[in-house]
Amino acid sequence: MPDYISHDHEHDGIDRRGFLQCMAWAGTGLLWTISGGVLASRTLAEIAKAGGSLPAATDLSFLQISDSHIGFSKEANKDVTETFKIALDRINAMPTPPAFLIHTGDITQLSKPEEFDTFDEVLKSCRTKDVFYVPGEHDVLNDGGKLYRERYLKSVEGKGSGWYSFNKNGVHFIALVNVLDLQAGGLGQLGDEQLEWLEADVKNLGSSTPIVVFAHIPLWAVYPQWGWGTSDSERALGYLKRFGSVTVLNGHIHQVLQKVEGNVTFHTAMSTAFPQPAPGTAPSPGPMKVPAEQLRSLLGLTNVQYKQGKSALAVVDSNLS
Amino acid sequence: MITLTSKDKMATLFCGIVFLNLSLFALGGETKSADSTKQNRIEIKDFAFNPKTITVKSGEKVTWTNRDEEPHTIVSVEKQFKKSTALDTDQEFTITAGAPGTYNYFCSVHPKMTGTIVVEK
User: What ipTM, to 2 d.p.?
Assistant: First the structure.
């Protein structure tokens, strides 16, 4: 199975055949391992089969979860708290826990304090305690992200509307915010201030430093008609061009999509709450209703491998069913 | 069989009078330039404002109703009116049309969603 766009007949960056294959996997959490500066991933099933531990050479592993939408209670999934719990159970069942989690936004449905409270309470059950966050548009609905920043970005000293960076095991992580101050008719947006910060942030890094960028809305034009893209992402990626390994992790679209462009691998994660339709396949990108018995097969955990000598990611998911 | 008491009859009569009065009021309102009771409705469905452009008279009310499962907001591009909070499913937001002019607005959560209110005298 190709793990990059191999069929782009529409020249729109969407590999429909590949997309369907991704949808067949379906997942929501990505286990990332970094070994010798190379990102890699494995399925939980593979780890279990191998006797329950990560490869000895692994220096770092982390996991991406996304789009919990706590507070959503409609047809597509009437109990999103429960599916979020199940996702955490899967993380807890991992023989070697990930070093940390990243949450790529939309913790809540309506930015309500009680929704954040529920999320925080449920998250306490997770064995992995370190979590790095970026907001989704659902987290910053009414207050420009004030509450979100206070809760989730204080410890990382988020700049501006909340962006920050950090280093782990030689990997440089960059957390970007592209859900605030959006312009009429536009897409996700980073803004000049954040872009200037980004340029300065990576300026003194060696080109061999592996880079991981995470943000809520995809940093590539997945489907601009539905707002699935970021208007000034090109400029951001321009600053990262010289790096040998750049991995961009996004949420927002509640489905796995992947694209490789030069040294940059783009990947979107599944939601723990509900699926969304494939680009252009429905009147709108609203929650996709599936039969109850299918829901958990469209939510799950995904581990990703980034092997030395290969620019493309291999993404395989294990679902929650 | 229901027998109306005199009290009930009075109530029915009273309701009829109120209804008649309201009808007359509404009818009269049609001819006025500013009718604050007229409801101009915009439905939010499938990530779109329907109708996308609406023409109203100054002083009339404009009400949005969110029929999506996704929250939406109504925000004036030029900050000409106070923005709504996020509307959950079936929630409404109402403004009173002000001075004549063209008011462009969008959903700040899904900025691809845009609409226009044309206010006439």
Answer: 0.79
